[in-house]
Amino acid sequence: MTLVGALIALAALLAATVALGVFLNWKQSQARRDVTHEVIEPHRLGADGLGEVATLLQFSTELCARCPGVHRTLSAIADDHPGVRHLDVDLTHRPDIAKHFHVLQTPTTLVLDRHGVVQTRFGGAPGRDVLELELNRLTAEDASV
Q1: Out of 3.40.30.10, 1.10.3720.10, 3.40.1360.10, 3.30.360.10, which CATH number does the structure's domain 32-144 have?
Q2: What are phi and psi of 87, to 5 degrees?
Q3: Mean of the pLDDT values across residues 20-38?
Q4: What crossing angle do the helices spanning 128-144 and 67-80 adopt, rounded to 10°?
Q5: Count of other CB atoms within 10 angstroms of residue 48
Q6: Is the confidence at residue 143, as pLDDT, over 70?
Q7: Residue 84 has pLDDT above 90, yes or no
Q8: In the chain, where are the structural domains located?
Q9: 18 versus 63: which is more confidently predicted?
């Protein structure tokens, strides 16, 4: 193989790796509604209860760089919506919870309905607008029942 051929192969491999990384990052930050609709028990997470309308459940770790920003966003959203509560669970010393909820990255956010049933899952830092849409969807579904 010539030097030019090796450089072209290396450039192609690099481009494919970058494209795959961008795709996986995009895919993980999308809202997933095809989740197991498990009922969350708040006392297992160290909380005294859930929100009356919805709960934004954030899984974080001590070394997570994006977790504080997500925490501020989720807290602000909860403050702006009556009946919505934000819970932040630190998984640093709770591998049992990380394993149970299949948390492979932090932050991971679960949107729970008023009964504590998981409705949506976000891997990474979800956007405020997407979270607002999810809360509006839950509120609308709750009103139509």
Answers
A1: 3.40.30.10
A2: -120, 135
A3: 60
A4: 40
A5: 7
A6: no
A7: yes
A8: 1-30, 32-144
A9: 63
